[in-house]
Amino acid sequence: MPASKAKTLSSLFRSAIKSKTSSSSPLHSPAGNAALEHIVPSLDTSSPTASISSISKSSVLPTLRLEAASDSEESTKQLSKEISSILCGGASIRSSGTDDKKSLKEVLNIPWFSSLSHNNISVNRKEVARERKQKWIFKSTQVNRFNRLITMCGQKLGTETAVQVFDRLGRETGPKEYNALIGLYIERARTSNDEDIALDQIHKAFRIFESMRERGFKLEEETYGPLLMYLIDMGMAEEFHFFCVVIGKENPSSLSRLGYYEMLLWLGVNNEEKICELCNYIAVDDGGEKSNLRENYLLALCESDRKKELLQVLEIVDITKLSPPNFVANIFKSLGRLLLESFAEKFLFAFKTCDCEAENISNFIFSYVVSIPNLAVEDVISKFKDFHVKLEVTPSSSSYKELITYCCYSLKVHAALDVVDEMCEVGMTLSIEVLDSILHASEESYDFNLVHRIYSVICHHGLKPTNETFRSMISLCVKMKDFDGAYGMLKDLEKMDLRPTSSMYNAIMAGYFREKNTYGVLMVLKQMKLADVKPDSQTFSYLISNCDREEDIIKYYEELQRFGVQATKQIFMALINAYATCGQFEKAKQVVSDKGIPVKYLNEIKSVLVSALASHGQMSDALDIYEEVKQAGYSLVPKAVIHLIEHLQSDGELSRLLQLFKELKDLDYWVEGCCRIILYCVRYKHLSYAVDLLKQLKDKFCDDELAIEVLFDEVFSLIGESESAHLQIGLDLLRVIKDEFCLPPSRKCLDFLLSACVNAKDLHRSRLVWKEYHAAGLPYNVLSFLRMYQALLASGDHKSAKIMLNKIPKDDPHVLSVIKAFQRNYIVSNSADGKKRKKKKKEMEG
User: Fold this and answer.
1) Does this model's pTM top 0.90?
2) Which of 120, 469, 495, 591 is packed most tightly, with the most Cβ within 10 A?
3) How many Å is the maximal CA-CA distance in the chain?
4) Cα(485)–Cα(553) distance, rounded to whole angstroms?
5) Which DSSP state fits 589?
6) pLDDT tens per residue across span 772-816
7) Where are the alpha helices (DSSP H) in 632-666?
8) CB-based burial of residue 315 (10 Å sphere; 0-12 exposed, 13-18 middle, 19+ buried)?
9) Residue 716 to residues 610, 685, 692, 785, Cα–Cα distance (Å)
10) How many CB atoms lie within 10 A of CB 812?
11) Residue 508: CA count within 13 A, CB half-sphere
């Protein structure tokens, strides 16, 4: 937020606070000032700010708009309806007026699960459990789901109503609920460009904050941290002081932690005097209770990467006396970011001398080496080893695991496996979870062949793999088309005392479907039957989605029922895609009308329908459903929006494309949508819109020049492959990049433009683009010489082409073959054109 806006917001916020507080009572009692003198020593504490205790408890929260709690049937129905709408995802998304008889029941003419019976209740539970596991794996499910529920309640009902809703449900509103609501308000304030809206959101957060105090809840960091960070980011020092005093009085144990935020505040506003004051405070070690405060000041200083101040403090402070180890690790991370290797080595030896635990020293080494900027993974590992040798310390198991995780995150799977080998050589225990992370990285990096090496480690060291480990390994074998290897792993399951699962067979089936190998799919089904493994919903979703005949869809659905498999979200999506593939678009649309679909999945399933219709040329129907979803107050999933943008490519659709573009919030989808619309603008010569979108791309990736270059190259690639009519807009975009964005064009950008000149047979523009290489500081290479030679030949300038030919190195046989191809194509073509012109001229003269 600009400084002027922050200043205005600060002024408005102070007015709002004062309107809720009494101006007659000073906030700081002598005792309060004494307790806080080291937390906010640099703030003016003499101003008569209001006392929190003077706020009327009855006026903190406004009157809620829900009806008063009563036993009336109408009130109960109203509350129940609102809660059901939230928890189920909003039933209003269903189209009003839809004829229930036109349901999927009629489409397939088979019975649906109108209710659960004793026979399928356990099946339903298993399906739900499987979906939950897939969605929430490696996450704290309870916390994440609860926060999502609170956010949804706050968005749909308002926070005050949400609080009352939870009370009336029999659950007392606690810190988790309040923290989630405060977080929601702060996020809204951050994303708003309107000062009044931002003020309103923070004022509401303050009121929730107040309500927590009045209900006797302890103000922990989970509550005050996000609020203080917002004030720090806005540079609102006076408001920061106000909250620190309130927090310190309510929770004296938080005083040392508030020091961390205070240092961040002065660093954020670049108040050198206050920063120096706090650094001096860190340096004076008088022991006692203030040591925790010093550590928090130092932690914030380390995160800021202010080299000068950090070195001054570290010259004085004995960091071997700091605790806990994670504080010290942050110091080493800062030393790594600042490239202070001599200091890192000095402190590591100090820890070695003071008999620090070897495991902690090893972890400090890891923290340092992985924080060094622009260091290749292989060099990180090398430096990690060198420090351990120099200090005569054995790498700890935890630092080894962290190093493997770092390699996996960087998708350097070979390096991760080398570290695994080292762990095994020194006799350290290896967990199957570590190998699971390497399997995941192998899939992400397309290093599928490493699955055999990973499996060898498992077998050699007698590790106990899980079913998921085997499924991942089978999937990797399938992705490199090693079906024999996949089946071989299935046979080895018995040796590991494991049984095959449907998910393992599903992985093989998916591979055969990708290869269009129907016989292979049938063999998988046969093997499942022989192994007595029942197909699950994923099995049937694969089978149904790959059907190209309506009778096959019905057959597999009947099989699904016979096995007692519950129709899940994936099944409904598969039905839509299958019907669309068969050209049965009306039946595909009827799928979303069935009452058997859980309401919470309906929006996602409608998004699949939009994608399927758009992909099969039914744009009018796809757009109608998009408008229906939008009018119901919902949004399509980003992938469906991308499908609409991708297939909405006729002239005159720019305004609709820009409307769709506004729907995209996720960064990856936003970038994809932006690029697609830029290409549309280039195709139909909408220069001003293309430039505006390019500016948005540049602003979004202002700190990533490589990303900007790649995105711009993608735009110019279309120009290079397009008709000659697009050459001028390409040159206009080149001018914008140079003059307005102040960026040099990339080599690929100019290569594509030169290709466009070839297509246009435009000699003048070819020469202009050729000069741009030199202006951009790009030396001519073999490819650029070849392209210019081609451009000169195409435009008929054989004399200049001959000169250019002499500059092309001819020691590569491939280059010679390209030259000969150009000559056959253009010299013969130009000669034929010349003969035709002469013949026509002669006929006219005759």
Assistant:
1) no
2) 591
3) 115
4) 31
5) H
6) 999 999 999 999 999 999 999 999 899 999 999 999 998 889 999
7) 638-647, 654-661
8) exposed
9) 30, 13, 16, 19
10) 11
11) 27
Q: 3-state SS of 453-519?
A: HHHHHHHHCCCCCCHHHHHHHHHHHHHCCCHHHHHHHHHHHHHHCCCCCHHHHHHHHHHHHHCCCHH
Please write the tens of the pLDDT for every residue from 673-684.
Answer: 998 898 888 888
Query: 358-369 vs 325-337: helix axis angle to the nearest 10?
Result: 30
> Is residue 12 a contact partner of residue 198, using CB atoms and an 8 Å limit?
no
Q: What is the pLDDT of residues 275-306, one digit of tens each?
A: 988 888 887 765 555 678 888 888 899 888 78
Which residues, in sequence order, are CB contacts of 108 under 8 Å at separation 6+? 553, 554, 557
Beta bridge partners of 22: 51
- Whose structure tokens read 């080494």? 365
Instruction: Report d(CA 153, CA 83) in Å as an integer.
Output: 8
How large is the angle between the packed helices 550-562 and 537-545, nearest 10 degrees? 170
Report d(CA 396, CA 363) in Å as an integer: 7
Strand (E) or helix (H) holding 232: helix 221-234
Specify whether the CB–CB gap between 705 and 741 falls below 8 A: no
What number of other Cβ atoms are within 10 A of residue 595's Cβ? 13
Q: What's the token pair of residue 659?
A: 């409307």
Residue 588 lies in a domain: yes
Q: Does some domain include residue 234?
A: no
Range of the domain at 560: 548-647
How far apart, in whole angstroms, are the C-alpha atoms of residue 218 and residue 253?
10
Structural tokens at position 229: 């960070």
Whether 749 is in a domain gets the answer: no
Exposed/middle/buried for 719, CB within 10 Å: 0-12, 13-18, 19+? buried
The span from the CA of 448 to the CA of 463, in Å, is 21
Residues 6+ apart with CB under 8 A from 250: 213, 218, 219
Residue 587 lies in a domain: yes
Render pLDDT for 126-158 as a digit per residue (tens, 0 to 9): 444 444 444 333 344 445 555 555 566 655 556
Taking only the tens place, the pLDDT of each residue in 376-431 is 999 999 999 999 999 999 999 999 999 999 999 999 999 999 999 999 998 898 99
Domains contained in the chain, number: 1
Q: Is the CB of residue 570 less than 8 Å from the CB of residue 510?
A: no
Nearest to 755, CA basis, from 796, 714, 783: 783
In three-state secondary structure terms, 565 is coil
C-alpha–C-alpha distance, residues 682 and 401, integer Å: 49
